[in-house]
Amino acid sequence: MASTISRNFVVSSILAILVVNTCFLYWAATTTSSYAAPPLRETFEGFSQGAETAVEPAGQVGPGILRGGLERLISGYASLEGEVQHLPLLDALPCEYDLIEDDMLPLTVLLVVDYTTGGAALHRHDQLWAGMAHMLTEQGTKGVTVLFAAGAETDWAQTAVRNARNRYRGNTISFATLPPPRVPRSAPPQVAVAYDVYEWLQNEHQFDVVYFIDWGGLGYFAMTAKKQGLAFHDIELGVLLTGPRVWEAVYGAEAPALHTPASLEASFMERLMVEKADVVVARGNFLVQWLRDRGWIFPPKTVVATFPAPHTRLPASQRGGPQSGVPIVQELVYVGALDAQSGLLLFLEAVERVLCEGGEQKNLGLKALTFSGPNALLDPRQRDVAACPNSPPEGSSPPAECVYGHEHIMRTMQNWQKKRCDGKRDRDCIAQIPSVTVETQWEMSTLLSYLVDGRGRLAVLPAPMDSPDTILQQIMEVKAPFISSDVGMARELISAGQHDHVLFKPRPAMLSKLLNQVLGSGGAPIAEDAANRSIAVAPLQWKRWHDCFSKMYGQRISVNQDGALKPAPQENGPGVLVTCVLVHHDRQRHLASALASLRAQDYPHLEVVLVDDGSSSAEALRYLEEISAEDSWFTQRGWRALRLHGMYVGAARNAGWRAAKGQYVLFMDDDNYAKPHEVSRMVEVAQRTGADVVTCANDFMPPGVDAPALMAIPEGRYIPLGPALMPGVLRNVFGDANALFARSALDALSGGWPEETAYAVQDWELHTRAALRGLRLEVIPEALYWYRTTDNSMARSPATSANNLQFHLRPYVETLGPLGELATYTQQITLHAQALEQQVRRLREGTRSTELIVQSLYRQHCESRSRSTQRAGSRGHNFIQNARFDAVTAEGKLIGWIPHGNRGFSIIEGGRRGGGKALLLDLPSVAEVAGATQHVYIGQKDAAPLILQGWSRAVDGGISGVGEDDDYSLYADLFFVDGTHQWGYTLPFRASSTEWQHVHGVIHPSKPLLRIELVCLLRWRRGRAVFDDIRITSLDDGVCDVLDPPAAQSTM
Q: Which one, out of 308, 357, 988, 989, has a CA that is 20 to 30 A from the CA of 266?
């Protein structure tokens, strides 16, 4: 019980995070660009349609802006601000070269697919890479490689490679996975995989074009390195924009797509990857404008293209169209996954309306329904709430609360059977039910062949949120009749003159209206592609683009014949002075090592300001005196030392930078060891990008090492993410204190570093403040220094943890006002949920141990008891009379039970497990109550626990309606010997299951029980349920049935 309660609380906490994060995430999703806050206020103004906005200082958000943004969020998050602006198509990109076939050089292309998670997005991306890879090989590309990128903890990528190699055996497509990293990553899994992709690309530098599918943002670090001028100068890095997480959170089947800290970080990488890409190829104008309305920045080369479909094209002789006649529609073919997100519920309700309207006079032309798509959870949210697998597990039954599309279709058919007219005059009855076929394993080619065989089949694509573009285009290519929901990119893909004939708003009434038109018109609509958006022309568009790039690539390598990377131009001029502020306290040995690393820097314009914060050890004081002497190497270099009196690290850093002469200030602690190019690399990136703050990865120094060897293998690597403000509420994603600041940035940061004592994450707060103020923060994806962790490090001090949580969120509250307070709440509830998750894991481990002990006790107690009760012919004393509902009076009344509610009960033959009579509760409408009550005499002298248990199952398709769990249950009111009572002890049954269920519970009376009023209850729902074998026993008499209940059987 404790495990269940904790698990449910974790779920509730996570749902609460979703509610809180909705507003805060919306702000973060529109302000976490690498260009941060000058657009911050502008972005909010863009969302505040009609809202009053006051003029605030740059970088601050006023109440009018917040109100407008929240109104926009509540009223229409999925809407566009204006008309869709049409982007150029892929083949309309200007090419500076004459495309002469003989001059073309074959390209090598890499496709990167995120395999860290499963779900609908992965299935869609499998279709995309397969279509792209096949098209590229047909066009004579020199080489195509597909990288299945996943972390070490998932085996999906390895399985995908094996399957792909088998499927494409003999093809020139290569497949790869990421090797295990040499250095352990200190980063969340998605961030670590993106970093692994970056390192893999550096080692496998053999590609001309690299396409990253947007989901997962796995090109983030590679594109960051290119924009910083550090790598990939001769590689075109592109993004195939299909629908990132923020889009999926509103339109897609990934429900929810933004619900964990890791998913927020992945969303940030997706956004910045698009911003930094050389080219973005989007599947539609609507998608690009929707993201732009939400503050996304796109590169100049952003185009729209039709993504090639997998190789499923039919020969021309097998295609439909006017040449084969326009058949009368007799069959509807549902196309899509069997879940709510793909439109299954919408489709079933619309078809029911078509069948019901007109009663027996209805046209009976609709003969069949076919459902084509993978079986899936009807509601994908159950993946998180009930731990349901994405599809029914093979060879075993899923949890009863996990409802899948195929099961729901069968239930709907059973409900339709009950609505048959059969001579009734009910205007909502169904005259004739179509035959139903469910195909969950069809390949696309099979579906296309089925649609065009001339037998009056109409494809219906009812996705209520986003259109399945590739499937829609393949259906149009074979000239198959179809209708589609008017969502997503559907309107862009279909010729404008045919929109009214084939598109419907995703509402059951609108779909049923269009179906009635089609069924009554005698012909199926066949739509044409919009100009230049068909699958047939897609390969030509992609070929022109790749030919142009091939020509550009040829021009590059003619200058650089060996194909090696050319160094990026050095933009920082001579004389740019950098001051390194090095803070020290009583660690003389580390200080000497840190100073040695600074002496070895390859950047010539470097001064050091050493700030000693009250050292008292003899060794430290002696060393400081030595290097401060006039003739010391330290002083001869013009380096300086400041002596403070224990002001703590924040005040020491502030004193150092205020004494600095440099245009840039690098902060460093005495337990850091700079790699030789740290300063030059940071200055280079700052100058090239215009960054105000530069952070980087760092390597963990092996223990006991003062000066790591050049090729030493680190203990681990910390990988910061960047200015991701929403994830930054929950962890430091920005970088370490070892960071380069422009002097002007420090002047703008209201005093610089926080100066509280015993505060370990001052870097977290300062970087957050910088990002919120609109300063540009760049993260170099390269470890530029070694980090040494010791036993007395601040980060390891437990005394600092409370202050860490207290202070680092101050910038959110100070900058964002009321909205910033949500950051504090979000962090606290997330930490609480994480703690509860750990508790649940411990409870599960304890529960498993208890189960093993109970199994042993069962074998010792219950098996011997079973032998004795079999000899005696009894299962122990049951306080309930007529527990199996088989004793009736001569008048046919059930002995021991009285009706409950306005519907009461009936007895049904053959309903019991194994045959015989059973109790039947029948509710034809949700406003009624059915039940059977028994007053059970207990008569205890001393309080003792009792076991209540019983069996039930829903029949005829299950129990529908929304209500409380107790609405379908064993319900007990307890009456004590002293005249007091306790209401409402319940054991609920699962309304979604049609299998026999056994429930049990232990009643722990606080005082002796006189009687129990027991009800077999079904109320305020719609449906029918049978009950059997209800028992109230002592703990000893009932425990064996609880541990090993008799097998459930039924003849119904």
A: 308
